[in-house]
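Ticket opened by: R.M.
Priority: normal
Category: complex prediction / small molecule

The reporter submitted a protein together with shikimate-3-phosphate and asked that the result be attached to this ticket for the collaborator who will pick it up next week. Submitted input follows.
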Amino acid sequence: MNLLIHPTERLYGSTAVPGDKSISHRAAMFAALAEGRSHVRNFLPGGDCQATLGVLRGLGVAIDELSPSELLIDGVGLHGLQEPAAPLNCLNSGTTMRLMAGLLAGQRFFSVLSGNPQLIKRPMGRVAEPLRQMGAQIHGRQGGKLAPLAIVGARLHSLDYTLPVASAQVKSALLLAGLYNEGLVIVRQPGPARDHTERMLAAMGAPIGVLGSVVTSERPKQPLTPLDITVPGDISSAAFLLAAGLLAAEARIVVTGVGVNPTRTGILDILRLMGADIRLENQRQEAGEPVADLVVQHQQGQAPRLRGVEIGGDLIVRAIDELPVLAVLATQAHGRTVVRDAAELRVKETDRIATVVAELHTLGAQIEARPDGFVVEGPTQLHSAPVWSHGDHRLAMALTVAGLAADGPVLVEEAECIPDSFPGFERVLQVLGARMEDS
Ligand code: S3P
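Result attached by the on-call engineer:
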């Protein structure tokens, strides 16, 4: 499926975005480990989270989908998962594979985690290696670094591990393994990776300790309590709408109910540095997470004059999934934007440094790859051209936003990956006034 996007001057309206991807994965997995029935609302019905549901079902967990975004999950308890009869298919979802590797390492059975061709190229040594240090038996291609991963359940022992890169997926895998270990798991983080796992497991009664950047987990003494939650909207999805609003000549967009956990709001800080101010209204707490409505608003002739920024360090970790759309904004900002310390982008769904640079080049942007990021000179007028998503949902959406600001139609090829994280993206943009159609 291809999307044809036409330049759009005005965007108006109020919309929600689907549930947060990271929180949805965790809600399903942790609910499966609780004793009793969990109720999860605003679950992300995207491809990645469907992969998690499929894996949990393969482990014997009963999940009743009242609707694609409302689930009843019958927790089987920490020791109630069953040996799967077939390999567990994580589809395209790195979060599913890495968190499940941690969860499965300490079970009493054998399991295999596999996925689609894109996922089985992504590095799994980063979870397998520290899990092996705990006694896990994990085998895979290339000396255990690539999926499929074969996991022989084992007795796990203590671990004191410093993450070489700030990764919430690796941290979460180790914390989950910690629920099955005979001592204490200590994870030391070099940066502020998202903390949804710590918040949710602690709220369920698991013994999770947080002291600054050090997180610990150990075997719970009581069963985990079931969840009754409404997943906040995904700020990583909201970012595309905010960016579209900032690039429009005239806009008033309200994105309601968005999770604004400080480990996720790097994009708001970056936009502020660029000269745009996104208003947070109606701030509240939901599911143990801060939530707000995000507003971007300006009249004709008063769009913020975006300026180039230099970003690196902790800000990158807090905005890692938003860097493709930041690159698009940078093409319209005045001056030079430099993104560094972002080598992690090279091991996402695609090598996002290479793919973002290649596709924005095609649209006429002045953008150059660096080993750990990219440099953009702006502003440049983006031109009408066909571009390719490379099967990467966030690249497809970033290119759609670029299309709204181009001087003629932009065709985004292979856009069917968008629902991996944002089902309904096209419809939401159309409702806001964007001119786009399937082609
Ligand atoms: C995620 C963590 C991040 C992020 C990914 C989701 C999570 O990856 O890029 O989209 O849910 O834990 P890393 O942990 O590899 O940095």
